[in-house]
Specification:
Layout: H1 2-13, H2 18-49, H3 54-76, E1 83-84, E2 90-91, H4 94-127
Antiparallel strand pairs: 1-2
Helix pairs in contact: 1-2, 3-4
């Protein structure tokens, strides 16, 4: 937390210089990577300590892999797609386009799943 406060203060004091912004972005990636690592390690530890949850954990992992795989397949099927950029050119690198579209599709699926789960939970609790 202290490092984040110092880096944000540095960015503010330097009026958002490129160096300050770059350092903050790198720090954000470090925090994201660390939190992702902790979440995965905690899930794996829980899977081995709570054997009753192994089936649910494996089902969740399989579902995530299927959703990401389907999103990649859908994204890869859009050949010749170009997206205009702010400099008057286009984004036409196939790898970038597939990664971007895959991320968007996975986000939409996660959003819809969150709504469905919330509605299911409300209806289930109302019928109890």
């Amino acid at each position: 937390m202290a490092i984040t406060v110092v880096l944000v203060a540095y960015a503010i004091l330097t009026s958002g210089s490129d160096t300050a912004v770059s350092i903050n972005i790198i720090w954000g990636y470090i925090l994201f990577g660390f939190s992702l690592l902790v979440a995965v390690v905690a899930a794996i530890k829980d899977m081995f300590t709570n054997t009753a949850g192994v089936k649910k954990t494996l089902l969740s992992v399989i579902l995530i892999v299927v959703v990401i795989g389907a999103a990649i397949a859908i994204s890869a099927s859009h050949k010749g797609l170009t997206i205009p950029n702010s400099e008057g050119g286009v984004f036409d690198d196939p790898f970038e386009l597939i990664i971007t579209e895959t991320s968007i599709i996975v986000t939409y699926v996660a959003f819809v799943a969150a709504i469905v789960v919330a509605l299911y939970s409300v209806v289930r609790n109302a019928l109890k």
